[in-house]
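Sample pair:
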Amino acid sequence: MTPPAHTPPNLPPVRRIRIIQREAGSRRTPMLGLARRPLSDVYHFLLTVPWSQLMLFVILLYVALNTLFAFLYLAGGDCIQNAEPGSFTDCFFFSVQTLATIGYGVMAPRTLWAHWLVTIEAFIGMLTVAMVTGLMFSKFSRPTARVEFSKFAIVAPRNGVPTLMFRMSNQRANQIVEARVQVAVAMSERTLEGETMRRFFDLQMVRHQNIIFALSWTAMHVIDETSPLFGHTEESLANTDIEVVVSLVGMDETMSQTVHARWSYVPPEICWNHRFVDIIRSNEKGERYIDLRYFNEVEPLSASVVGDA
């Protein structure tokens, strides 16, 4: 069964740069004046880049080292026993054997120049293997949360009061213990002196903590007189730089480590007078299950419900 497709109401396009990035290790807000030190934080950079970029970096480093030593062996003339003189291919694969400490016994250094190069390359090979192994292990063992946030947040009446809501779903077949969600709204505020400041205002949640976050969780914030969003409408937020920032922190029961996830919503991603399609369903036997195909689906409220609110 294919989930029904629904497109939220179109809002005027506004050029925005998110404060909170949905992808770990990314930052879109330009920052001028930072000291450029490419080699000062290589470890952190390599830990945060995607696996594809890390593997590409390791491969390029491996090829570059062997190419460099291959040219150094060529510069030494006929310095490798059983290798064709002047052959870059033989020098390259001899470098591969030396860097990886394989030593098949077919090719061997025959001059003092070659022996010194083999000594240096073997030392560099041990350091490189140790560093790459540590980097791979650190990156592989980093605790991560597989939490999916709904693509859209909604504002709909709940018990007659406008309420901001969004969904979260644990994508792993385990539990996040003592999960806590914090939500804040970032908006620009002008002071009496005429200065514009970007401020964060905390949003009070109906429930900010979940003892066991196993399946899904709908977070709710009541927009009453104490809410920073009180008095705002869909039209008043459409052309603002407001951003709803979400942070989820908890302990993964499998790894016994703290995991976190983050998300944000800007006005075009907030649907007013809509509701989420129910994802809790029952089969013919009366057994309940969750259908995550409808996780991001929203539908408009009836005019009577909107009018009563």
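The longest strand covers residues 176-190.
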